[in-house]
Design a protein that fits this description.
- InterPro entries: Flavodoxin/NO_synth (IPR008254), Flavoprotein-like_sf (IPR029039).
- This protein has six helices and five strands.
- By secondary structure, it is an alpha/beta fold.
- The chain has one domain: Rossmann fold, CATH 3.40.50.360.
- Strands 2-1-3-4-5 form a five-stranded parallel beta sheet, sandwiched between helices.
- Helix 1 packs across helix 6.
- The radius of gyration is 15 Å and the shape is globular.
- The structure holds flavin mononucleotide (FMN).
């Protein structure tokens, strides 16, 4: 059975809910593990066929120490260590083999319209994935929250489940050699 690893960052729980829903969608034909970036492995093993990463948009990109501190001070977010998250994990993780495919997602405000089009944490996530030589299995997906602290907009959890199922299909259609 193919194996997937989903690594997420989440301050208010929305990206974590999406990560788990994607896992649900994948789980029909793929064995899936879901971990927070703070607990992410130091190395991606050759047994991982698909790596999915995702987290919130913060200040038009991925969260970083200053925006995590902003989330704590302005919105009462609880972050034990603001110096580490998905970006830092993606920079540090080792991928010493080929054969793993990747995909990225982010969560973001559903307004205003201009902002919705502009910011893309997932763009940076994809750049970091490509930096490890990981081919992208599918274009990034974006999931919407109705306010900074959530909740997710109606239907987003179901959409994440469907995206997970689509990723499983794409993985089966484009099997990569393990090496
Ligand atoms: C400090 C901070 C900056 C944010 N900046 C943006 C932004 O630039 N664009 C956006 O769409 N949402 C922005 N948001 C809203 C977040 O995307 C939202 O909090 C997140 O998607 C919720 O996911 P989470 O519950 O997993 O943390 C920001 C939120 C915080 C706390």
């Amino acid at each position: 059975m193919a194996r997937a690893l989903i690594v997420f960052e989440s301050v208010f729980g929305d990206a974590r809910t999406i990560a788990r829903a994607i896992a649900d969608g994948l789980s029909g034909s793929v064995q899936v593990d879901v971990v927070a970036a703070a607990d992410g492995p130091a190395e991606i093993g050759p047994d991982v066929d698909l790596l999915v990463v995702g987290g919130p948009n913060h200040g038009l990109s991925m969260p970083r120490p200053s925006t995590r501190e902003g989330a704590v001070k302005q919105y009462g977010g609880e972050i034990p260590d603001t110096s580490r998250g998905l970006h830092e994990w993606l920079e540090a993780v080792r991928v010493p083999h080929s054969g793993t495919r990747a995909a990225a997602f982010d969560t973001r405000s559903d307004h205003p319209k201009l902002l919705v089009k502009m910011d893309r944490a997932s763009r940076t996530e994809e750049k970091l994935l490509r930096g490890h030589g990981l081919p992208l299995l599918a274009p990034a997906e974006h999931f919407y929250v109705t306010d900074a602290k959530g909740p997710l907009a109606d239907g987003e959890e179901d959409r994440a489940r469907r995206w997970g199922a689509d990723l499983a299909q794409a993985l089966a259609a484009q099997p990569a050699g393990r090496g």
